[in-house]
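Purpose: get a first structural picture of the assembly so the mutagenesis plan has something to point at.
Setup: two entries, given in the order below. No constraints added.
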Amino acid sequence: MSKDINEMKDTFSTENTRVSVGLASCSIAAGAQKVYNAFETALEGIPAELDFSGCMGMCYNEPLVEVTSKDSPRFIYGKITPDRVDRIIKEHVQGGHPIKEWLVYAEGMKTADSDFIDKQQRIILKNCGVINPERIDSYLSVDGYKAIEKAIKTMTPEQVIEEIKDSGLRGRGGGGFPTGMKWSFARKAPGNVKYVVCNADEGDPGAFMDRSVLESNPHSIIEGMLIAGYATGAQEGFIYIRAEYPLALKRLNIAIKEANKKNYLGTNLFGSDFNFKLSIREGAGAFVCGEETALMMSVEGKRGMPKIRPPYPTESGLFTKPTFINNVETLANVAYIIYNGAGAFNKYGTETSKGTKVFALAGSINRGGLIEVPMGITINEIVYDIANGLSSGLPLKAVQTGGPSGGCIPASLSDTAVDYDSLKKIGAIMGSGGMLIMDESTCMVDVAKFFLNFTQEESCGKCTFCRIGTKQMLKILKRITNGEGKEGDIELLEDLAVKITTGSLCGLGQTAPNPVLTTIKYFREEYEAHINEKRCPALKCKALIEYEISEKCIGCGRCSKQCPVNAISGERKQQFSIDKSKCIRCGLCVTVCKLNAIDVVTGKRGV
Amino acid sequence: MPKVNLIIDGKQIVAEKGKILLEVARENGISIPSLCHDSRLKPFGSCRMCVVEIEGMRGAVQSCGIKVSEGMVVKTNTDMIIGLRRTALELLLTEHCGDCIAPCQVACPATIDIQGFIAHIANGQVLEAAKLIREKLPFPASIGRVCPRFCETACRRNLMEDPISICFLKRYAGDEDILNEENYESTVKPDTGKRVAVIGGGPAGLAAAYYLALNGHRVTIFDSAPELGGMMKYGIPEYRLPKAILNKEIEAITDLCENVFCNKALGKDFTIKQLKLMGFDSVFVGIGSWLDQSLRCPGENLKGVYSGIDFLGKVAMNKPVEIGKKVVVVGGGNTAMDATRTAIRMGADEVTIVYRRSRNEMPASSIEVDQAEEEGVKLQLLSNPVGFVESNGKVTAVKCVRMELGEPDSSGRRRPIPIEGSEFDIPVDSVITATGQKLDTASLVGNPELALDKWKNIAADPATLQTNIEWLFSGGDCVTGPATAVEASAAGRTAAISINQYLSGEAVVAEKKLFNCSRGTLEEMDPAEFEAREKISRTHMPTIGPAERKGNFKEFELGFTKEMAEKEASRCLSCGCMDCFDCRLREYATELGVNADHLGVGEKRFPITDNGPYIISDSNKCVLCGNCIRMCQEVQGVGILGFVNRGSNTVVMPGANSENLCKSCGQCVAICPTGALTFRSTQPKPGPFKVNKVDSVCPNCSIGCKLDLNMVGERVDSITSPICNDTVNQGDLCNKGSLTYNAVQSSNRLLKPMLNNNGKLEESSWTDAFNKCTSLLKGIDGLSIAISPTMTNEENIYASKLGQLAFGTSDIFSTVPVATNRFALDSQNNEKVTFNGMMNSDLIIAVGNDFSQKYPIAAHKFKSAAEKNAALLLISSNVTPLHTSAKASLKITDKKLISLFETFIGFVLENKLNDEKVSGKYPQLIEALAKKLPGDYYEAIQSFFVKPEKIVEFIRLYLKAENPIIVVDGDAVSPELLELITALAFITGKSGTSTKGVMTLYPKGNTQGQLDMGIQVDTRDYQSIVAKIKSGKIKGLLVFGTEEELAPELLQDGVKTILITPFLPKKQQFDIVLPSATFAETNGSYTNVEGRIQPLKAGFSPLGGKNNLQIISDLAKASGYSMDVPTEAQAYSEVISKLFNK
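Result (structure tokens, whole complex):
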């Protein structure tokens, strides 16, 4: 049982003090680079080490600064700005007194935010936000490259594959295919030349698991690929990464260079005859290139378009050679499993879903960020314990997992366990790890439209069902949210959805209708309200709502001043009114009214 | 090849293992649709049409990507699969914008291919136009005079200025057809022995009779009137439709009938039942609506009151009718107008039309109302007769009431309401009532079981026109009530189709309506789209002025001249799609009964790219199958097309610099499943036309690509190649092949003989030309004949006979000399290397620079062989597009080639790598070769400025290969080199089968045939002929070929030259020039480089009037030797016996 932070002792040693600023993309966006620079100046002449790390996961608290010293626990400060740097140095670095009110996390102690970390189970993220991603020594200090050494020196490739099979690891990119099985197919594939590819083309909107791992612990991916190569007989690997991840790219490049220099990559690794060459291929940001056959086309320098299967990549993949593709997160587990044994991994999780899963939490929640949880945890635990509930105070309406390929889980099913099979059973999918939490103010038709808009824009344009089918579905969703929905539209959506699912060439199209299908499944009445009553119950669809000023209005005129289209008028100190023909339903008036005198109403017109 | 057993749709099938399921299914007669599959391309999988269900596999499996395997159980037509296919099509259509057929054709009751016949007229093929119209309507001249022109109302030109004068163009075609009676004949199918009675000789009956007779049925027409024609004859006055014209068109129909009985009225002279008893297998009733609708006011029977139809009929039959000077015509339809204008022509002074609504509501066509007014008629609108005033039983006035318009009625027109107390009288001498007719049901007496509808018309299935009596069909006015002649004619044709089905024992079903994608009605179109197009005013029909015409019954519309018609036809916007006859999207949409309203059709999103020299691209019709992209990349190796953008914004676009890279092979157009890519027409209007495919062979190189001449009448519309494994090219063509049609009908074709008159060529007649030939040939003793290798085997053999027998010369040579092989050893008699063999060879060495340019199809073969299992080695002096497919290449200048092959042979002999059997049999050969070899082998190998090990590697690869083929350009190498290369293949034992040896390509279609026919083809022979010319031994030259083929050294002063050529010569120095036929006008055969003898059929008659064999025969005659023109069979047997006797 961890102690409350207020019961913590006040003074710690200042010996070997190390200040580490989290410098991942999310941190930098929140201003962490400035904080780092401020520390750099302020720490001049002070016997403390300044370092940086990657992402600690607590995105809602960025920038984060960790201060440790000899014998002290990890102290993490959140929302640090440059003007707070002097006090941290003076009181904590020099004085040994942690500043309690700024602490978001103190190892072993209960803080306001400690649940966020403590409820997690970190395997992949264990060293993220801890080690310096730009120094191989930092990785080596946490047993880096020990797993590949163990594999080469003490295990046969078959044993490695067996170990991975035993671990129960399944592909974390979304498909959930057993990794050990994929490797054994690759091992059995005939031919001397084989390729292993790391899919780092993370494209789901709002998902950043892979980016975070690559920015925070790039060597773990290199090591995972080495083990994969050793196990399958592939001597060459490619990391396919989107060019929009410049920091991840930079850190990967440094890592590959350092690993080559130290002969963790190259020829005769660990004195064996195992050679492995690794290079990076940058993607141009097409979502479909996350699909493995399209990815291979892109690596070959062609337009990223999925190919028909068979032949499968393990028979004829990159440059017509056997190829197998693993996602970043999958590979990030590999070194852990080999080094610690399958048992250390499969003790987490459920019968069919072993280990942990990383999620990027977003939406109307108090704590958004990157989390790693054991498989089998419930949606409720994630939403209420880790994310600390909904930020709006409104009730939970639904959780979307799996991004645009996934489905919406209604609040009524929020005790569902997060594992491959339970999610699939209710129409959602595990996906690569995006998790969007929505409160009652969300219009589910609008959500479906949002995701479908994404997939239809990102369709590669090759096959009929995906290219045009999604566009037609979107057209129907648009007319529904515009108040022009027709009887039979829901059935038409369902029919098209089934056809697109069955008829599409690749996973993108096959899963694109999922958000629509699950929202219809769980929120059909909301669709019906839009179509039959021209009503948006969540008050979101502009075409279906109107603003009205109630008798609460005291005629202050704030709303009238703010209105960008001069739709509000009235005598001062008397009830104002809105000209509905002018109103563009931007909602500014509601925001500025202090008396809640402006009501949003729906369902009046057209019924 | 190992076989596998599988089941498709319950059918047991044995197939080659590893074949694509889709192709196996199709080969076994199970059709699986696909827009993106082509056997020549790698599976792609974009259209998703070919999905099937396979036992043990989840969901829908793509049959174009999966290979057949043992025990596979496939279902191609489950509900799930059909549903997916239909949705896929509906989705494609939401992005597909265009008109399958033009709106005019959609509007035409007879569904005439209006765009097609107008294009024929614009292109000067008016008889083709008439033929096309007669497929749907047997009265183009008559209907072209009287049709109410539903088509013109729909014409898109309405959005610009005025519609195309479609109806008058139809009349023009019909009139021309009548003038050219020989073209009037129709092809009649063999006699079926079935008898059909057609009751009623009006437009419905006549059309039914025509199309029934064409199908071989025996037709008897019965009509109650003295002559056939029905309403067209008795209802439409002479000045609009001259009886002479109508009779001509009727005659063409009755000529095909077994019997015609006039003055025989149904119900009076016979009953339907009797006909059945008389042995008619089926009966068509088209008796029209001849009974007048009553005015429902008293006095209709007074003297001086006529019904319109009765009145017009009497006039038509020249029966006396008394109408006096003041005439009132009641009604606002076309019959009323006809009665009015007839009355004027009969001398009435004052003719008044009484009509109860306003002018806008008049059912008559407005031009007729205008013309009647021009002729002096008065319109008494918004008035209705309520009674007649009489004196002595004769009408003296019409009592009318004024009307006002109220709310619209069910017909959409405003209902007229009488204004109380507004009665007035119009004094008259006579009244003609033309307020409609109805079926005279009395004529159906004796057939109580024949069902009538609620309007007392004959009830017939609207789609098949079958009545409730199985063998009885009915159409025209007696089914629909009074309508137009064109509708009646269309009904007659529909009934004929149904009757034909009935007589053939088939189910009587409506003709399958082809799916039609439409851009919408005039109202739905954006007029802005037409703003940029040139406005051209409508051609006016020349007419006789009202003053002159009102006094007689002469036709007052005089008809278009050729110029007028062609000008008017050229205004056509060609709205309909050029691909409508073979669009797969349309075919599948028809097959699957797709409803385009379900998800809607696409809107125009892209401009049409129309600036290329040969190809028009309309992305609005593209279904993104990717065929063009892959054809260009995978087969042609050019790769200028690609997908651009993502999602639904994806389009196919050419890359930068594509104009320079495009080879205009046209294969993207050929493979496009829709009308997104089409050829630019060389004609004023592109059609579309249904083409007649004529077998031919490309004359442009010796590969022997199979061509289809796509003929439209006497014109080659385009050239394609059938996709068929049995042909050399298997559907592939290069630009030379696909664009050949331009040359054969170019403007520089020579059409008449030309004679030299003081250094200038002047046109002459054939007779004069042959007379000149006679005198010229008599005076020459040393004569030589040059023949183009684009001429057929037959022409070559007869030209050479001409030389030998008539001129007594053996100097008969090819205009295009090449390297040939005189290496007369065993290898000559062995099997030749073939392109199929090449696919099984393991090494190809191509010697020469220019295969991709000069022999593109061969280059494609090299490429596909290289993709299969052959290593491609290139020996050339520069880098060519083929180098990307090559395993290795040697850069050697042409001059060094001989020494390179001597070095190869040297290597073989020095290392004793030659085939022992060969050396044992031909020791002299080895000895001779050994003598030629370089003294210092190592020095020689150094002399090529290539790494010596590369050269050694080359010969090693060659020796290692089991089935190597060396391909040589016979136009670029010397005979010595060719023989050296052949020797290499021979002494190493690598020749003599279809998969190993030497293949020599030539730049013209029939060089191989010339060799076989004993023509001197070799450059060495050619040089000796040149020497003979220079030395004066040859004093005359007879050339079958083009001027370009004729080298300047052959044209010495003092040598008399007769040039027999298809093209106008530029030089003037020839003595006589005769117009010859091209390959496209010739029946005969070519022999390709593999030795295949392939037939050519003439697509059209020789433009110069004579085919080449005829010219040869005439020339023989001119030189005093008798040589008959051989029949095709005779000529062919000459070719075969020549081959045997070689």
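Chain B touches chain A through 36 residues (CB under 8 Å).
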